[in-house]
Design goal:
Layout: H1 2-5, H2 8-19, H3 27-42, H4 49-80, H5 85-109, H6 112-135
Helix pairs in contact: 2-3, 4-5, 4-6
Length: 139
């Protein structure tokens, strides 16, 4: 009953304390825990305005850098007619490292709407880069 009257994050903490170690949970406990965590993530960004702004700015910078690298790789590949492996290797490193970490931070904080909006903008820009690259004449 306390889960209905407390904040969602407090409900998750109380559930974890009341049910002990994860290894002892049954299927129902896992489902209830997952439902509580989904409520926490859906309730909006975690932390104060400064932490939210810092997370969002970090994500925007990393996404903008990644999209710029992707666009450059696509256009250079179309222009030169061959893949440019140093740029693509760096792009893979950025995707697996900073981009993955910033997306995880947004996901864990519950900033779903911001994450979806940045994903849509990123897809639009990469689609534009793909169209530009396909219009360039291959050598």
């Amino acid at each position: 009953m306390t889960t209905l009257t407390s904040t969602t994050q407090t409900a998750v903490d109380e559930f974890r304390q009341g049910h002990g170690d994860v290894e002892t949970w049954d299927a129902v406990d896992f489902e209830v825990h997952q439902n509580l965590v989904d409520l926490v993530l859906a309730s909006g960004p975690a932390g104060g305005p400064l932490r939210t702004a810092r997370r969002r700015v970090n994500a925007l910078v990393v996404i903008a850098y990644t999209v710029a690298l992707y666009a450059a790789a696509e256009v250079l590949t179309a222009w030169r007619g061959a893949r440019w492996t140093p740029l693509e290797t760096h792009l893979d490193t950025v995707i697996e490292g900073p981009l993955s970490r910033s997306e995880t931070a947004l996901r864990r904080s519950g900033d779903l709407m911001f994450r979806l909006r940045t994903e849509q903008v990123g897809r639009r820009v990469t689609d534009l880069a793909d169209r530009l690259a396909s219009s360039l004449r291959r050598r």
